[in-house]
């Protein structure tokens, strides 16, 4: 009983000492958490496909306020296109995006205000010419870095979200280019294929990219060997067509291995090849249509997959052209 009383007394002392200790927290002024930023920059780089038109196309941007409460005063902000950032972006990402030609764009305004008691500016617009005199080139990739400054405000700018990088490309209206019939098309070559997929009903051979069945697919070899990229498929259309672009449907029941970086070549004889374009596909199960960099007359086309999402192997459910 005495031992129990001693233990109880000891715990009481420990509890008293613990409660009497004072913990000093570092100073955390609320102003450290008040920042302004471009909300579009959260998704950098932001891709925008513009349709060729006589009417200028619009890019929307603006600024937001983030903090514990609403701003207690107006916050004026300014915006500029910052072409100096294009070179650094290209070097960092191994890309070759161009700057917008002078005269191809205009701002509706370059200054705005996050008003007292509000969290955003009004939407601002960048107008880009895609048709007529002074328009940007069709099917050309441009990088447009829009940078925000706030020289007249004491609210800090979130440096990670100061600039929104827009990837801009103009293209014709896809609705004007119907898909070609694939009747009579054959496979003229491939880097590898995997017939062992047939045991699960998946096909696995290159011809399954032309069978109108999204439940089957071509798969690069994985049995006995597993070659890495580049992977390719050659299609013989068995007649000469003007190729405007290609369409892709990825495998429907797997994420890894979907095509990412794609190069396209065309040929009249299946021997001599001409580069026709390069693009990046999304990691998606939906149909993806891509224009070639120029419209080409061809009987054969070769699709080269130089990389895939999260895998060295590659697969594709359906492949077509328009």
TrEMBL record:
Residues 175-322 form the F5/8 type C domain. It comes from the Bacteria. InterPro entries: BT_3987-like_N, FA58C, Galactose-bd-like_sf. Transmembrane segments: none annotated. Gene3D superfamilies: Galactose-binding domain-like, hypothetical protein (bacova_03559). This is DUF1735 domain-containing protein.
